[in-house]
Amino acid sequence: MSEKEITTLKLRRPDDWHLHLRDGAMLKAVLPETARHFARAIIMPNLVPPVVTASQANDYRDRIMAALPAEMDFTPLMTLYLTEDTDPADVAMAHEKGIATAVKLYPAGATTNSASGVTDFDKVRPVLETMADIGMPLCVHGEVTDPDIDIFDREAVFIDKVLKPLRKKVPDLKIVMEHVTTQQAVDYVRDTHKNLAATITTHHLIINRNHILAGGIKPHYYCLPVAKRETHRVALVQAAISGDKRFFLGTDSAPHTDPAKLQPCGCAGCFTATNTLSCLAEVFEAAGKLKKLEAFTSLNGPLYYGLPPNEATVTLQKGDPVVYPDHIATDDGPVTVFDPGFDLHWRVIP
Ligand SMILES: NC(=O)N[C@@H](CC(=O)O)C(=O)O
Ligand SMILES: [Zn+2]
Ligand SMILES: [Zn+2]
């Protein structure tokens, strides 16, 4: 069957390998948006205060499960927020007991709620060595924070200045470069044959920096790492549709209320949980690679994390444009849903 004739697409149930669920009222409102379509997600630990210890991760998982509507089936895969005081023994215990799936590295000050992150990478070497020994992955927000480095170059510079030296020092550490946004990151992952993979977000496959800045400033397209020029977006699409096992979906769906985004110093983050699968189907269809969508959403991630792919399926069906809400209501305020800027013809039938 040629791609044009495909109107129904059955996929193994997808997983989201990078997700922000927040806490409290926000958690309650956004969790069903993900659990409706996704079986599992790697849950980011950048709460205030951050989820640092095994015990905090355990409590956070309990709060997530308590917020999950009874009819929904969803497994949160917890992460620990790496600080310079993180105890290697606590990390090893969390891994062994199945409390945490991965550890998250935020360079201090790189992004939303990253103040407790790492400044001196030598201080976290013992934790990283322990993780390498036990096969626990490190998820990395890959941007330098040096104010002298242009914001559009911060990912590429991070690869050269931080990631390459770190991988030399701890070569057996399994790393996921989160939410890659550049040709340089795609090339680096492709040129590396062991212990390195990358997540790609939905929005970075769709927007470039013009979407944020041309014709008026669009705070809802502002996220970190910031979207780059069009050539980089094209490189990300090429990586996502390639079927290369080292690239998989991490939506980085990052809800902030409209009042928090729409102000002189607005928060970074795009909220894509609601319409991600419809958006991705459009991107893959436009590239003539619908048949590679399942690898990106449902197969490559579990393979890298050493987990079985999901047995359950979701079906995508093509038809008249699907109307998603502009925003979802939360008791903290409205959260705007990502607008891809084009019609979405693929609806998800759970
Ligand atoms: N991506 C974002 O722009 N924001 C994320 C943090 C992150 O993933 O860097 C958030 O927590 O809001
Ligand atoms: Zn990040
Ligand atoms: Zn994120």
Automatic annotation (TrEMBL):
Zn(2+) 2 binds at K104, H141, H179. One of its GO terms (molecular function) is zinc ion binding. One of its GO terms (cellular component) is cytosol. Keywords: Hydrolase, Metal-binding, Pyrimidine biosynthesis, Zinc. Zn(2+) 1 binds at H18, H20, K104, D252. Substrate binds at H20, L21, R22, N46, H141, L224, H256, A268. The active site is at D252. The modification N6-carboxylysine is found at K104. Pathway: Pyrimidine metabolism; UMP biosynthesis via de novo pathway; (S)-dihydroorotate from bicarbonate: step 3/3. It catalyses: (S)-dihydroorotate + H2O = N-carbamoyl-L-aspartate + H(+). Binds 2 Zn(2+) ions per subunit. InterPro entries: Amidohydro-rel, DHOdimr, Dihydroorotase_CS, Metal_Hydrolase. GO terms for biological process: 'de novo' pyrimidine nucleobase biosynthetic process; 'de novo' UMP biosynthetic process. Its EC number is 3.5.2.3. It holds the Pfam family Amidohydro_1. Its cofactor is Zn(2+). SUPFAM superfamilies: Metallo-dependent hydrolases. The keyword Ligase does not apply. It comes from the Bacteria. It is an enzyme of class 3 (hydrolase). Residues 16-309 form the Amidohydrolase-related domain. Belongs to the metallo-dependent hydrolases superfamily. DHOase family. Class II DHOase subfamily. Catalyzes the reversible cyclization of carbamoyl aspartate to dihydroorotate. Homodimer. HAMAP family: PyrC_classII. This is Dihydroorotase. The gene is pyrC.
